[in-house]
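S1.2 Input.
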Amino acid sequence: MIWLSPMTGTEEGSVYFDIRDISLQPTGRGTDGVISGLLGDGQREIWGEVHLGSQPQVRILPLWTDDGQIEELSLAVDEELLKQQLLESVQNVFSTVERWAVATSFEDVKPIVQSHDWLAA
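S1.3 Output.
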């Protein structure tokens, strides 16, 4: 789970990204693929997709409730800031994917794990 703070006018507000699916492919240029999951503010949830690769982007999609209503996050959430923070956070968390893909032993993996700032991601 990744925590974000895209609320306008407040430091206390936060939104989480609960990753539900990871589909990544290391390439010679980096990593291509999609990380998707639920974006929520504690009361409502919507769907988010982070597309990595040559043209990274974030898509925010509505979810429907059991009674047919469309879920939306609070109006206090700055959607553009949310997209920016989500893209930066996911890129940071998955920045080592290509190096993991070519690692063949624990000795290859050890410097990757030690160099990654897991708390900042």
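S1.4 Remarks. DSSP finds three helices and seven strands in the chain.
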